[in-house]
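Entry for the shared binder. Reason: the reviewer on the internal report wants the predicted structure included alongside the sequence.
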Amino acid sequence: MKLVMLARNPGLYSHRRIVEAARARRHEIDVINTLHVHMNITSSKPTLRYGGRTLPDYDAVIPRIGASITHYGLAVLRQFEMQGVFPLNESVAIGRSRDKLRALQLLAREGIGLPVTAFAHGPRHAEDVLAQVGGAPCVIKLLEGTQGRGVILAETAASAKSIIEAFSAANLNILVQEFIREAGGTDIRALVVDGVVVASMKRAGKVGEFRANLHRGGKAEAVAISEEERKTALRSAEVLGLNVCGVDMLRSSRGPLVLEVNSSPGIEGMETASGADVAGAIIQFLEKRARRGETQTRGKG
């Protein structure tokens, strides 16, 4: 196969591993900077150009689009899709997952376990929002935050109200969620590829830190997930339409609760902790499924 990866930093572990896995299985793969691609949106003949030339025909595209360039990255990916290139994850599905509020709404509609979450515009409803999530302590999240950034634990009602008011004054959209005390600063990530959990790990935040993100100094170890956790991860991927994703869950007294579904999960921590060949599983999925012009969510929003 002839593959292309959209990635701004080809030196990242995840990107290097995917390239290594592709080449080990005798596939061609190009890595191109998403922001350096430009589009010619011409009726009946859409094209993509990079480095002064029209890009060749590819069998599949692997989008590794950073959160800060989601809008442009999805436009580029849609152009590949219009040219019949099979995407690892479709633009529509990535868009769903990147919109945290929409993703939670879709998961909630399907009955998937979530922390109690409230959303409102402006500070006038702060007290009502806090009451809905069970009061303080509670977790306040920016809708645009990634890797634990923009996530704050408000330990008192007064501090929660102040944080909500401050974000509202800055015209930032936030979610307020209940704090799951029994999780103890840990979460579970299940990595799904083509309807199978290929690896899982338990992440723990450093001392004094309630966020378990590895980018914030958290530690990871392999973990055996329960059947309920496995089903929750697979159903979450299915609801959002993602072929490959990381599903982050908390272990609570009422079962697994989904925090987030990541459409471009990093694989370094997962491969290191679990020993699984995640990059290889991704390439094997493309070998099995990549056919020009075939997508799962054509025309769906």
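Summary line for the report: Residues 227-240 form the longest helix (14 residues).
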